[in-house]
Amino acid sequence: MSKTFELKNNQDDKAVELPVIEGSRGTPAVDVRGLAGKQGVFTYDPAFTATCSCDSDITFIDGEQGQLLYRGYSVQDLAEHSSYLEVCYLLLNGELPDKDQMETFRDAITHHTMLNQSLVKFFDGFHYDAHPMAILTGITGSLSAFYHDATDIRNPEHREIFTHRMIAKMPTIAAAAFKHSVGQPKIGPKNDLDYTSNLLRMMFAVPAEDYEVDPVAAKALDVLFILHADHEQNASTSTVRMAGSTGTNPYAAISTGIAALWGPAHGGANEAVLNMLAEIGDASQVPKYVEKAKDKEDGFRLMGFGHRVYKNFDPRATVIRGYCHQVLEHYGMQNNKLFELAMELERVALEDDYFVERKLYPNVDFYSGIIYQALGIPINMFTPMFAIARTVGWAAHWSEMMADPGMRIARPRQIYTGYDLRGYVDIDKR
Ligand code: CMC
Fold it and tell me: How far is 30 from 36, CA to CA, in rounded Å?
């Protein structure tokens, strides 16, 4: 028998039975769609703390157990055994590829890495000190001008080409944004390199010298990208879905995701963590900053701490912390001051009742910057790294939504708190 949920109206004492929707795992949801029409009330949930916006087969998070699954595979398992491109295939297609499928996919991604030369000229329009996330947002939005008529969002093949283009071009765009900021010539993609080696080369090679990609750096980035690839209905993915629900050009929809990711409450936290650690400066200052974070009068929060869904630990943070040791050791940076400071901050916070009671733990952004910095990636490029990795998640969710025949424009309601109808007053009578 299907479950229902009874909601009682204490004005007239009448109850209404609402259907309960259950997924394959996770908290069930009360289907409130009929409520407005039948009962004349909306539901109110401004930050969507209790609202499911869609059905999805892609990613599952169990916040209590600290579990993150991509199409049923744990992110730890994938980080240990898979590669970022294989994870992209999995997220987009639902299954891990066989060898032929993987080769075809790799080939498709590799052959979409270049940018149209007219688009390359756009970079010069940005001031040299523009934040790379601003450039990423603008350039990705501009892709819609290059592929507008060629993208029929109702055509599954066109949707697939879009996902390949997006995954392929994002590293090229991010690397070009970096080159623009340091005033160096842009380095184009090289098709015989793997995904992250190609990115490192486009960022760090210069025409005057040979560049050898460090495989440890490429592998570290690959692992970080796997861990960031998708996270179900997070703020940026929900933004992409919302924009996409209007039927807009998908490249334009992805640019809204990049914009949403940039904020410090979301992907911008990785940059904010490093700035915070630099500000704290020394282990002796940790207690002072932990007190600041607890003080509601003080706007300061521990960046890289806390999560809407994880109430135990963030499995991505655990993998990254372990990886920090390996990467720092490889670069002879075992005594890295920032890593030691981050671990001390984690230790002090996790012994503090404020953080324990609120179930606030380090999230994915807490340690990732330590690795990025060890690889020589500048702080303002941390969030672009996140954006490159999350592109597949955005594209997979957009594709899933577009393939759903029941898709409708996303359009929330509101509680209006302004004036009732009033008459216009002429300017000299106000
Ligand atoms: N430092 C101090 N207090 C915190 C923190 C923090 N980092 N995070 C949450 N709290 C407190 C908050 O003040 C509130 O306390 P109270 O119940 O007394 O009012 C309680 O914990 C619940 O916090 P919330 O803000 O209601 O939780 P939320 O689900 O709305 O926000 C969050 C989640 C991630 C935005 C928030 O924890 C935060 O701002 N963290 C710092 C930024 C950050 O690291 N963001 C990256 C998130 S993971 C990667 C990603 O999404 O991209």
Answer: 14
Measured between alpha carbons, how far is 339 from 58 in angstroms, rounded to an integer? 33
pLDDT in tens, 261-305: 999 999 999 999 999 999 999 999 999 999 999 999 999 999 999
Tell me which residues are annotated as active site. 307, 365
The residue whose C-alpha atom lies closest to atom 28 belonging to ligand 1 is 308
CB 175 within 8 A of CB 202: yes
Q: Chain-centre distance of CA 279, in angstroms? A: 25
How many angstroms separate the CA atoms of 92 and 255, rounded? Answer: 19
Strands 29-30 and 67-70, bridge-based pairing? unpaired
How does the average pLDDT of the chain come out, rounded?
95
Residue nearest to atom 15 of ligand 1 (CA): 358
The residue whose CA is least distant from atom 2 of ligand 1 is: 301
- Block residue for tokens 């949930």: 45
Neighbours of 378 (CB within 10 A): 15
d(CA 358, ligand 1 centre) in Å: 9
The whole-number pLDDT of residue 38 equals 82
Tell me the CA–centroid distance for residue 12 and ligand 1, in Å. Answer: 39
Nearest by Cα to 255 from 355, 181, 145, 358: 145
**Is the alpha carbon torsion for 29, 30, 31, 36 positive or negative?**
negative
CA neighbours closer than 13 Å in the CB half-sphere of residue 361: 19
Residues with CB under 6 A from ligand 1: 234, 265-267, 269, 293, 301-308, 358, 360, 363-365
**99 CA to middle of ligand 1, Å?**
42
Pairing of strands 67-70, 59-62: antiparallel
Dihedral sign computed on CA atoms, order 394, 396, 400, 403:
positive
pLDDT over threshold 90, residue 149: no
pTM: 0.96
Distances in Å between the Cα of 231 and the Cα atoms of 99, 169, 378 are: 26, 21, 25
Q: How far apart are CA 380 and CA 252, in angstroms?
A: 23
